[in-house]
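Record 1 of the preview.
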Amino acid sequence: MAQKKQTVIKVSLIGETGVGKTALVNRYTEDKFLSNMISTIGIDCKYKQLEIDKKKIKLQIWDTAGQERYRTITTNFL
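->
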């Protein structure tokens, strides 16, 4: 039996520190909202499985740190 190929889409969130990138990712992927989050260190990745028009899609959401000191790390992932 032939297995359907899964499409993978990569989304990178970049922006200033403290604007809510991590909160947005957690709300979308886990349906959670925490009002007191700690800052992301470097980069974090979450996944979400979707089905659109009977096609399976794996969404990779990369959450980058906003602090200047992590810019060199996060630019390597983009």
